[in-house]
Write a structure and sequence with these properties.
Blueprint (H helix, E strand, L loop, with lengths): L2 H9 L33 E2 L6 E2 L7 E4 L1 H7 L14 E5 L6 E5 L13 E5 L2 E3 L16 E8 L4 H4 L6 E7 L12 E10 L4 E11 L4 E12 L15 E14 L5 E18 L10 E17 L9 E15 L15 E20 L2 E20 L10 E16 L3 E16 L9 E15 L4 E12 L3 H5 L12 E2 L7 E15 L7 E19 L9 E2 L1 E19 L3 E14 L13 E10 L4 E10 L15 E10 L9 E8 L19 E11 L1
Parallel strand pairs: 6-9, 23-26
Antiparallel strand pairs: 1-2, 3-8, 4-5, 6-7, 8-9, 10-11, 10-33, 11-12, 12-13, 13-14, 14-15, 15-16, 16-17, 17-18, 18-19, 19-20, 20-21, 21-22, 22-24, 24-25, 25-27, 27-28, 28-29, 29-30, 30-31, 31-32, 32-33
């Protein structure tokens, strides 16, 4: 039996678990008296690690949020999707334009940190770095799936320098709304949250012209006023109005229509007047008018060629454009800093990626060799009324990468995955930058991972991965004159060396069926990691120098280690999940703790369901330990516990068929708390209500 056939058999007729709650979607016999064997969130299919495999059988720490998990979060911002994903922390603030990612203690408020985590939308690489502004802009309603791949082993398939890992967003398709035989569907959706007056209006249309061609059109409007913390404080500059949408056409052809060609366009736009200049925290920079526009175009082709073991082809052509326009700063009249100029900052990235998987098999083994290449061209722009912006240098970044990954499976027990990637990077500065010249280098990223299944209950896994992160335009070509605490000028940093990461992981996974009740399931996956970081790039420090010095230097060496645990239980009438993350990080040069390490956190969910009424309900809790250090100097940070309750009603027959009703109360005790990597306190008590109705024909 082929790999794809085994995966199809494994997934067919299962209960697909999600974080928070899961719906019974399993197969039943004709009499509808049998319930499929339960499968938890750790049996979600992972598509971003090479060959498709379920999460618990992947020798890497991965988490998958499917459509149900995304919907249940009732998220107003991207950050809210990751509340209970181990090892992932949103940094900055709850402001919609002030959010960035931190994975396993990697990723801080410094602009150049954005390059340490690779983020994609439908395969298009997303990137934005700007002072006091977040790195990713999007609307939760656009996405049906999010995959988080933790650790630098992800560099093989996605690009050298993924010190923290990779986050892949996948947008919705028409097939997500159409049942077999249906020609069209329209979904109306609205959402309200009480903190404060948050409203979503969403309209989605899906149409199938025939068995081969379908189209999806989606539009969303979301607004929210300044939110209020548990102590009653209003967080200024957190209000926003955003407009987003998605258009996607899919055409299938060839034998059994298994080849697919997809063209998609997604857009997110927000226009905020008199918002806080510092979107990453309330830090006294005054106010400004800011408009953010993010666009993504993707043309993708896939040909799994199930009857040809030598062909499993994927081609992805993409264009990403992110721009931030600012004006009318409240500090413009009193400050000479370019920070407050009327200006437009932007990134445009053109990318092409192609890969093919060759399948071979023999007596007791299967082998999947993936070869591919990736080319990207990125333009960094900054246009201010006073001219070139010294702290946001313009230029281009061109990368070409070649990668190879082999997956060898012996006797359905032992899996070995070696991989290697080589990236050639060329960075060209704008001619206006004094003393700048082009920079070229090569980054090398090898790895090997292994997983061994003793039986259907217990497996162990481990990996060793190395990756190298090239300096960015920001780090090489930023300059500044005297000021900002410096009596001298800082010039370009042409002698920067690559950052390197050597990461070691080991863990185990256990899986039990029919544990407490017939057809239930319990799965737990534990991962320990140890990451050694060398040649870390940081901004220079003033120690009495009298002449111009480089803006950035290589000084720090660090180690980060920790453990992550994911677990879930599923049965017909009950469900539960948990996520735990404990991370330690130290600057080995100074012995000080790293400021980018998140507090130890535990997320837990307990719930029950009444399948005869299509109703489920439960409790969610997030617990954080106290910690001294954080992204700002305001520590220490107290530990906290935040409790939520939720209920979901999704009738599948009768007069309310195709309706969805979700309700929740978050932070029910109105707790005042602050995550140590956040610039503001979190939201106080919030009531959320979502209603959706789909019309199909």
């Amino acid at each position: 039996m082929s790999y794809h056939a085994r995966m199809a058999r494994l997934l067919a007729g299962t209960v697909i678990g999600t974080i928070g709650t899961a719906t019974i979607a399993g197969a039943q016999d004709a009499s509808e008296t049998e319930v499929a064997q339960a499968t938890t969130l750790l049996n979600q299919l992972v598509v971003g690690t090479g060959h498709d495999k379920v999460a618990i059988d992947t020798p890497q720490a991965v988490t998958v949020l499917d459509q149900e998990a995304i919907d249940e979060k009732q998220a107003a911002t991207i950050a809210e999707l990751f509340d209970q994903v181990p090892g992932v922390t949103m940094i900055g603030s709850d402001r919609v334009i002030g959010q960035s990612f931190n994975i396993r203690g990697i990723g801080g408020l410094a602009a150049a940190d954005e390059s340490k985590i690779i983020v994609t939308v439908d395969g298009a690489v997303k990137f934005h770095e700007q002072y006091r502004v977040g790195s990713f802009f999007g609307e939760p309603e656009l996405y049906k799936r999010v995959e988080v791949l933790r650790g630098p082993a992800s560099s093989t398939l996605y690009g050298a320098g993924a010190l923290g890992g990779v986050i892949n967003f996948t947008t919705k398709d028409a097939e997500d709304y159409l049942e077999p035989g249906e020609k069209g569907a329209v979904q109306l959706k609205t959402e309200y949250n009480s903190n404060v007056a948050g409203i979503l209006g969403s309209l989605t249309g899906a149409f199938a012209f025939n068995d081969q061609t379908s189209v999806l059109v989606n539009g969303n409007v979301r607004s929210q006023q300044n939110y209020v913390t548990g102590s009653g404080e209003t967080i200024k500059g957190s209000e926003f109005v955003s407009f987003s949408g998605l258009g996607k056409i899919t055409h299938r052809f060839g034998e059994a229509n298994e080849q697919a060609l997809r063209l998609s366009y997604s857009r997110w736009q927000s226009d905020a007047d008199d918002t806080e200049y510092s979107q990453t925290g309330s830090l006294g920079f005054g106010t400004i008018d800011r408009e953010v526009t993010d666009q993504t175009v993707v043309l993708a082709y896939e040909n799994p060629a199930s009857d040809n073991p030598w062909l499993d082809l994927n081609v992805n052509l993409s264009f990403s454009d992110t721009s931030v326009t600012q004006s009318d700063s409240s500090n413009a009249a009193t400050s000479t800093s370019q920070l407050y100029d009327d200006a437009e900052y932007g990134y445009r990235t053109y990318s092409a990626k192609i890969d093919n998987t060759f399948e071979t098999s023999g007596d007791g083994f299967e082998n999947f060799l993936t070869l591919g290449g990736q080319l990207s061209y990125q333009q960094r722009t900054a246009d201010a009324t006073s001219g070139a912006i010294d702290f946001h240098p313009e230029g281009t970044d061109t990368k070409f990468g070649f990668f190879a990954q082999n997956e060898f499976v012996w006797n359905d027990r032992l899996t070995l995955i070696p991989g290697v990637r080589v990236d050639v990077v060329n960075i060209d500065p704008d001619s206006a930058i004094s003393g700048a010249s082009s920079s070229s280098d090569v980054a090398f990223s090898p790895k090997i991972a292994a997983l061994y299944k003793f039986n259907d209950t217990l497996s162990v896994f481990g990996s060793i991965a190395h990756t190298e992160r090239m300096p960015t335009l920001d780090e090489i070509f930023s300059t500044s004159g005297p000021g900002r605490g410096w009596p001298i000028s800082r010039g370009v940093s042409l002698d920067l060396e690559k950052e390197t990461s050597n990461n070691f992981e080991a863990g185990f996974a256990v899986s039990f069926n029919d544990l407490l009740a017939e057809n239930d399931g319990l799965q737990i996956k534990t991962t320990g990691f140890y990451n050694i970081l060398d040649n870390l790039i940081t901004s220079n420090t003033y120690t009495g120098q009298t002449s111009t010095v480089p803006y950035y230097v290589n000084v720090d060496k660090a180690k980060i280690l920790g453990v992550e645990i994911e677990g879930a239980y599923e049965s017909k009438y009950a469900f539960a999940s948990m996520s735990f993350s404990r991370i330690f990080g130290e600057d080995t040069e100074t012995g000080e703790n790293l400021s980018t390490i998140p507090a130890t956190t535990l997320g837990a969910t307990l719930g029950a369901r009444l399948p005869d009424y299509n109703l489920d309900f439960g409790w969610r809790g997030t617990f954080a330990e106290s910690i001294v250090s954080g992204a700002t100097s305001e520590g220490p940070f107290a530990g906290y516990a935040v409790h939520d309750i939720f209920a979901n009603w999704t009738p599948d027959e009768g007069r309310f068929e195709d309706w969805v009703l979700r309700a929740s109360v978050e932070n029910i005790f109105d707790k005042r708390y602050r995550a140590n990597l956040s610039g503001d306190d979190g939201k106080g008590r919030t009531f959320k209500l979502t209603m959706a109705k789909q019309f199909s024909w």
